[in-house]
Amino acid sequence: MKIAFIAHDRKKDEMVNFVTAYEKVFEGHELYSTGTTGKRIMENTDLKIHRFMSGPLGGDQQIGALVAENEMDLIIFLRDPLMAQPHEPDINALLRLCDVQGIPLGTNIATAEILVKALDRGDFAWRELVHKYKPGTEI
């Protein structure tokens, strides 16, 4: 599974704590993140994460490009709904793309926990079918 982590500044500590708590679940998956969030996670865990640019510099859009190609399987995006974000259009575009492609997206810690428990149980095996029958793929 390809999993992305994104967290606004006031949610980064919460993301690090969350990923640390579920580190064993995330092992063995392809992990992606925006810049600072990924750096903070790697400083506090043994996980290896492909880091994109920070969100305001285009990291959200880089992850969105994978979503648009249906190449991302799960996103945990801890958003700060009480703080205006200068790159709000990029955030909205990413959320819209997740809806278009049917990518599971957790935008708060409660939903993220439900998703990671489902991941641990193997409930996302259906994503393998999405990749197998993706247009342009040999069957």
Automatic annotation (TrEMBL):
InterPro entries: Methylgl_synth, Methylglyoxal_synth_AS, MGS-like_dom, MGS-like_dom_sf. Pfam families: MGS (PF02142). Catalyzes the formation of methylglyoxal from dihydroxyacetone phosphate. The active site is at 60 (proton donor/acceptor). The keyword Kinase does not apply. This is Methylglyoxal synthase. NCBIfam families: MGSA, PRK05234.1. Residues 1-139 form the MGS-like domain. It catalyses: dihydroxyacetone phosphate = methylglyoxal + phosphate. Keywords: Lyase. Substrate binds at residues 8, 12, 34-37, 54-55, 87. The gene is mgsA. It comes from the Bacteria. One of its GO terms (molecular function) is methylglyoxal synthase activity. HAMAP family: Methylglyoxal_synth.
